[in-house]
Amino acid sequence: SDWSEDSWSDYGSRGKVGTALGRTVPGGNVLFPDIFHTDHLFFYERFRTYQDYILADCKASEVKQFIAEYLEKVLEPSGWQAIWRTDVFDVVVGVVDVDYSSLKAVVELSEPFLCESQDSSFTLECMQELLELKEYQILLQELWVVYDESGEFDQTALAIEHVRFFYRCIWRTWDEEEEDDFDYFVRCVEPRLRLHYDILEHRVPSGLVADYQSLLSQCEELYEKFLNVRNSISTSDSDSEVENVSMVEGLKLYEKVEHLKQKLKLIENPLLRYVFGYQKYGSLQAKGQRTMGAKVTHVVSLTMMTSLLRLLMRDKLCPESCEDVEIQFHSDPLAAVNACYEGDTVIICPGHYVVDGVFCIADSIELEGYGLPDDIVIEKQGKGDNFFDCTGANVRISGLKLVQHDAVEGILNVHHGKTTLENCVLQCETTGITVRMSAELLMRNSDLYGAKGAGVEIYPGSICTLLQNGIHHCKEGILIKNFLDEDYDAPKITMVNNVIHNNEGYGVVLVRPVMPSEVKDATAQTTKGENIKTKENEFHEFLVLGLFCMTVVTFPLFPALGNTQPTQSGDVTACGEGSGQEQQPECGTDELELYERAETAGQSEGNCEMANGLGATSAKKSKRHKKRLSELGITEADDNLMSQDMFISVEGNQFKWNGKGSFGTFVF
Q: How many helices (H) and strands (E) in the chain?
């Protein structure tokens, strides 16, 4: 690399007049001098420095050597002051030399003596004795450079910050034993650096962050034990029974460390961390019933007035059975849900509630708003967490408006059991509702919008019933995950009288793998000639990209209207949805009547196309399953075993102004 002064003109302050860094006033009771403010660096600043200037393509065993070479080129060897910080004391020292190979500075106490400690035992004499024991050498990452306006020590302060951050947040004690066949920066530094900033910017669920920190602590503790056992074996020359026992113990510790390291790598990988994280929420433990089987009604209100209490007593708190019911009052809906046991009810009064946490509902409880949904708003604060995670056998949520901002995960996840959502408004951020395998969702009379992914994601083996809902202004309306694989059961889907409109992609999308026969057909068409023009009514367009094939299936809703131009699914004529409202007045009366009739017919056809598309895929799954049984020598099977078709009830749904049409299939 070119380490000339010109190549560093944009890094630090070399060649500039005055400092380019800010200053920070240290806290505490002692008047310490100000220090450089360097812990605010952006991701790309650290990334660029580690990749281009410090580590480059070094191996794990070369890290310390590369850091020493970097420091030797940018660090001022003497003439600057710093605050030496430990867990016990802070003291001002002057740097007289730097030992680059050991990453240490040779220091002396500054005058006047400035020291702050947890007790008064660290006097000038004590500090002198301590420095003598350390041979006056201090680790560079324990030094915070004293602020200097000249700019002469900017690079020194930044370099020490990069070293300090590296050993605090990136380096692991076991990294030196990593295989040298891999680029250390690519394998370890980049994913850990990205994870650090994702956590800072609240892009990772708090539960997953806690898991990562716990795993890291466990791994460090076990690795230290492993090193102690290994060292005790290596220093012993005897072949005694004690040594054999130590070897067995060392192997067990090594296996545990490797297992924890793999878990850490899963979370550090941005593509895999959420797969790992979802497992936690899928195994939430239910509390069950109270000891005496009593049920409690939880009332949530920001302020409780006598008039509101009278209305609650009249409408909600006096059951017809006239039995005494225990009532608990809360000001936070999350606290109320956390206090629930099996069979409890949470009544949320009008108000705008801001929560910081996840609603983890593992028991069969009911959350209901007392009033209109727009008057009962629960807003999620924080970027990383899920909003609602449901695993209860029978969870019911009604009459609420849920608002999500700057989120990473969906607004509601149904992992197990049945969740009923009724008369709710869901303002999403990423994915909307996810119905996972073996889970059931009943969504009725609700409005969902704003998802940057799909409004509703339906996984194989789930049950999803959507009745009279609005799903709009999402990336996709409804996304049905691959159920063609033999290991998965087809989902059971019921969609009646829903309005799915103004979504960027399709109203409903089916995602499934490509069939071998489809690949053969695509290959045959390619062999015939690449210049043959694709026909207007052809259903499959195969895009072979690397190792996979993607098919986009679009169903034109109105092929009979005589439009000679290729029509997008969902478009009617020049007066249709795709051409915008401003063109409609140009049509004559007869054309408008034709448009109205076509729109009504189109909605019916959209339901049929969706049912046919899903049914055709289900039939393919059934055919593959029968073929598999035949290969195994099973010629007769029970009807229940052979009945793999999807249960579909699609009726009365309206698909309007969706960017790519009503229904599409993505084949990968």
A: 14, 36
How many domains does the chain contain in total? 3
C-beta separation of 146 from 82 below 8 A: yes
Count CB neighbours of 343 within 10 A.
Answer: 17
Structural domain that includes position 70: 22-181
Tokens 């060649």 identify what position?
15
Helix (H) or strand (E) holding 128: helix 124-133
Instruction: Indicate the SS3 state at residue 265.
Output: helix
Whether the pTM exceeds 0.90: the reply is no
Q: Which of 507, 496, 476, 666 is nearest to 577 (CA)?
A: 507
**CA 133/CA 103 separation, integer angstroms:** 18
Please give the Cα distance from 400 to 377 (Å, whole number): 6
Q: Do 99 and 131 fall within a single domain?
A: yes
- Dig out the tokens for 569 from the structure: 């699914």
My answer on whether omega of the bond before 112 falls inside 30° of 0, hence cis, is yes
Judge if 134 and 212 occupy the same domain: no
For 473-510, write each residue's pLDDT tens digit.
999 999 988 655 555 677 889 999 999 999 999 999 98
> Of 489, 512, 535, at which residue does a domain stop?
512
412, 426 Cβ separation under 8 angstroms: yes
Q: Which residue in this structure is represented by tokens 């070293």?
A: 163
Which residues make Cβ contacts (< 8 Å) with residue 66, sequence separation at least 6?
Answer: 54, 55, 56, 58
Mean of pLDDT values over 295-315: 92
Q: Other C-beta atoms within 10 Å of 548: how many?
A: 11
Residue found by looking up tokens 């400035």 in the block = 114
User: How far from the centroid of its chain's Cα atoms is residue 411's Cα?
Assistant: 12
Closest CA to 450 of 468, 424, 469, 477: 477
Contact (CB, 8 A) for 366 and 388: no
Q: Which two tokens stand for residue 192?
A: 């850990």
Tell me whether residue 517 is in a domain: no
Q: Judge contact between 417 and 391, C-beta under 8 A.
A: yes
For residues 269 and 303, membership in a common domain is answered with: no
pLDDT, tens only, 225-236: 999 888 887 665
Q: Is residue 611 part of a domain?
A: no
Helices 273-281, 206-234: inter-axial angle, 10-degree rounding: 110
Length of the chain as a residue count: 668
Task: With both helix axes pointing from N to C terminus, report the angle between 63-74 and 154-165 in degrees, rounded to the nearest 10.
Answer: 170
Is there a contact between 95 and 84 (Cβ–Cβ < 8 Å)? no
Q: Are residues 176 and 217 in the same domain?
A: no
- Give 187-205 pLDDT, tens digit per residue: 999 999 999 998 888 777 7
Q: Report CA-CA distances (Å) from 407 to 9, 13, 269, 284, 432.
A: 39, 38, 19, 21, 11
55 and 110 co-located in one domain: yes
d(CA 393, CA 361): 10
Q: Which of 409, 469, 467, 416 is nearest to 433 (CA)?
A: 409
Q: 492 and 349: one domain? A: yes
Residues 223 and 303 in one domain: no
Q: Which tokens belong to 141?
A: 């990452």
186 with 258: CB under 8 angstroms?
no
Distance (Å, whole) CA 317 – CA 303: 17
Instruction: Look at the block and give the residue holding tokens 């046991």.
Output: 341
Residue with tokens 């009593």: 294
